[in-house]
Write a structure and sequence with these properties.
With about 150 residues, this protein is an alpha+beta fold. It is about 25% helix and about 25% strand. Strands 1-4-5-6 form a four-stranded antiparallel sheet, with no helix packed on it. A three-stranded antiparallel sheet has the order 2-3-7, with no helix packed on it.
Length: about 150
């Protein structure tokens, strides 16, 4: 069936393959002209493969595929992602940050700020409740004046 469509002068090296795999559907990618590009996909690839760019590094390429979300850091230096609280560095309090992560591996999540990675980690609620804080003294409203 497809061997009748094959022109030997176009792709003579494919004749044995086509004769062995008559119903092979990918053959159409090699022989039929694509009207939007004016040639076959294989020919187009062979013409332009010298201009294919390679990534700068493997790390850069992997970072391109990370999920990205923007969050505002709370006053207690935490952000929430999918109803889970994460501790972030205190320098980001009250600012918007871009968090990059793999959805199935939140242990590798980080904030990318000015080219530097700042790791984030899930909030340990037990540790957080035992943290000593400098509580400011209460306000004595009787000394402020006003009132009745």
């Amino acid at each position: 069936m497809l061997s009748g469509l094959l022109k030997p002068h176009n792709h003579p090296s494919l004749i044995p393959l086509i004769s062995e795999n008559q119903p092979f559907p990918a053959y159409s990618l090699l022989s039929f002209r694509e009207c939007s590009i004016g040639t076959t996909p294989l020919s187009r690839y062979q013409q332009t493969r010298a201009s294919i760019r390679t990534p700068a590094s493997r790390e850069w390429l992997e970072e391109c595929f990370l999920n990205r979300i923007t969050r505002k850091v709370n006053k207690d230096s935490t952000v929430s992602i999918d109803k889970v609280s994460y501790d972030v560095p205190m320098q980001f309090i009250s600012s918007k940050v871009e968090i990059r992560f793999l959805p199935d591996d939140m242990s590798s999540a980080f904030i990318l700020y000015e080219g530097v990675h700042y790791p984030i980690r899930p909030t340990d609620k037990n540790e957080n409740c035992r943290t000593k804080r400098n509580n400011t003294p209460g306000i004595d409203y009787s000394k402020l004046g006003g009132g009745c």
